[in-house]
Amino acid sequence: MISINPYLNFLGNTEEAMNFYRPVFGGQFAALERFKDSPGYEKMPEEEWEKIMHIRLPMGPKDVIMATDALASMGQTLTKGNNFYIRVSTESEAETNKFFKALSAGGTLEMPLNNTFWGAYCGMCTDKFGIQWMINFDLP
User: Fold this and answer.
1) Which are the contacts of 98, defined by CB distance < 8 A and separation ≥ 6?
2) Strands 132-138 and 120-126, how do they pair?
3) What percent of the chain stands above pLDDT 70?
């Protein structure tokens, strides 16, 4: 396992929240991607195109805080307890499969494991205890 990092969900104010955290922890954003940068964005409501799909703020040499906007148009809602994922970065597809299979057993799938447009093999699930997981292997 490479690392485990929090992945925060916000209701349309990710940019504001992450701009609040940046001076607290220092540094610059290592990634900032908007929904308009993703395939199929034109099917989304235009007012959501500028919302944050993915943002990453380094916190030291290995750790990061990542975040996204949860969008009602995508059927997403937020309540206390579901506003974050634990993101596990793995070292191989095999390790990704192992963790995902174990964590999703008895839980619910949000995004089955697949190769993504951002260059990763990734899946998301909620385990049987209600904890949300994002298992990710960055493809070579």
Assistant:
1) none
2) antiparallel
3) 99
